[in-house]
Fold:
Amino acid sequence: MLHDELTIAKNKIRNAVIAGVFCSVTTLLMKTFGSGYLEYEYDWIFYFDLAIPVGLTLGVYRKSRVCAILLFVCYLYSKIIYLISAGPMSGSDTMSLVPIMMSMGYLYMFGQGISGAFAYHKLKKRNSLQLNRTEISELD
Structure:
């Protein structure tokens, strides 16, 4: 039972890492080959905007609860800023729904990463306590 729960937690973390890597690579490709290439060519904000999700994704890979939460919050914040700066969406433009749906998918995966990181540490702590109790009872 503990092994199955631990596997589920690790799978959630793995899926969040895959989403983080895919999001970072997509950001790199869009800013490099997209319309904003000249705008970001020597702009330090581009590297900062790319380094944050890459670093936080690495932290999620290392099963950090703080990095999982920060990855979710930073991504949500960037999307809110994007939606505010882009202005109102026209109802007839169905292509504007695609980025929103993708963002919802990323947020779901990053949320699963939070869930997986907390579950992983909880299960590891429970397993550690069980091992300590077994060692103490063997000594008695």
Notes: Residues 48 and 118 are 27 Å apart (CA to CA). Helices lie at 2-33, 37-40, 44-61, 65-86, 97-139. The radius of gyration is 20 Å.
